[in-house]
Structure to design on (276 residues):
């Protein structure tokens, strides 16, 4: 009961911070999302590199933070887009730094420094393309809708999976996540579509209904893959949670693993369909 209460209270607090970041203003959004990026990259590098190459880990996090900040300035403050390439400078420094490492016995871990950038920093920086319109005006409603669909999918998958999926049907990906089931997947998909439809009729998800439903399906499917990708990393490194910043829930990477894949795909869909 104490654990359930802890999870509930910390979950409410986490949700409140996210909603505030998406609704108050651009400065709160930028600060919260930059903090989340730094924490997620730090959690990932701690999991994969441990105490090895600490200075290089800091350079990797710095490179990710610079990419996010420059993208944020470009979308929200008319920062020249061509100068976003400055984000590559810390990456080049990271590469050059590898030449001067005295102990290269664990050099294979260096690949994780680059993986953190591709896996976390690049997709997280794309959030700025959803939070700001072409005129640089901030509006976090669309991102909030994305997160609501992902959260709804997670809740639906959990409820259907725990009540029916553990007894009936086949497992979704037993080699990586033994508890996930196909019943949970379909339950999550149904919930995601229902949430998207509800947001549409509430006037929050302002795209045509067909796009809202398509987005719900895309976010659900890619969100599941995002969850499985992080589970594969954790299984390989034999850790239960990426961190412990949220009591009872683990790390921020555990909370945003689905979003890291799903939201960029959602943004790509809107761009390709000429909706965004």
């Amino acid at each position: 009961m104490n654990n359930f209460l802890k999870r509930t209270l910390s979950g409410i607090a986490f949700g409140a911070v996210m909603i505030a970041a998406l609704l108050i203003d651009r400065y709160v959004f930028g600060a919260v999302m930059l903090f989340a990026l730094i924490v997620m990259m730090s959690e990932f590098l701690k999991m994969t590199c441990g105490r090895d190459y600490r200075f290089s880990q800091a350079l990797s996090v710095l490179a990710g933070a610079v990419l996010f900040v420059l993208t944020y300035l470009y979308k929200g403050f008319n920062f020249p887009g061509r100068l976003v390439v400055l984000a590559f400078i810390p990456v080049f420094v990271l590469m050059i730094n590898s030449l001067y490492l005295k102990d290269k016995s664990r050099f294979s871990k260096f690949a994780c420094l680059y993986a953190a950038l591709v896996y976390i920093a690049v997709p997280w920086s794309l959030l700025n393309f959803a939070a700001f319109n072409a005129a640089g005006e901030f509006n976090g409603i669309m991102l909030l809708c994305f997160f609501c669909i992902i959260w709804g999918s997670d809740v639906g998958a959990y409820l259907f999976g725990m009540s029916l999926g553990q007894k009936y049907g086949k497992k979704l990906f037993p080699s990586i996540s033994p508890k996930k089931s196909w019943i949970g997947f379909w339950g999550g998909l149904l919930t995601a579509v229902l949430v998207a439809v509800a947001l549409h009729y509430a006037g929050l998800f302002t795209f045509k209904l067909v796009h809202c439903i398509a987005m719900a399906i895309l976010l659900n499917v890619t969100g599941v893959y995002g969850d499985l990708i992080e589970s594969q990393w954790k299984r390989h490194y034999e850790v239960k949670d990426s961190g412990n910043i949220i009591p009872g829930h683990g790390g921020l990477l555990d909370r945003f693993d689905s979003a890291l894949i799903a939201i960029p795909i959602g943004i790509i869909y809107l761009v390709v369909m000429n909706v965004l």
Observations:
- The first helix runs from residue 2 to 23.
- The beta strands are 171-173, 177-181.
- Residues 75 and 134 are 8 Å apart (CA to CA).
- Residues 26-137 form one domain.
